[in-house]
Design brief:
By secondary structure, the chain is α+β, with helices and mostly antiparallel strands. Helices cover 35% and strands 15% of the residues. Strand 1, helix 2 and strand 2 (60-64) form a beta-alpha-beta unit. 3% of the residues are buried.
Length: 65
Amino acid sequence: MARRSDPLRVAFQADALATRPDRWNDLGRIACPTLLLWGAHDQFAPAADGLRMASLIPHARYVEI
């Protein structure tokens, strides 16, 4: 997907991700049932991140494909 995108857009997205605030502590405030559907071979966000998120969100379900 990144290869097909405009290089400047990819750079802006990378900058946005690098400077975004940490929101891990806010995950516990999610009040609705939540499904985290994760790719087993995701190279951008490892499965450990999904599992961690699921452990912090009440009523979360983690499914790895």
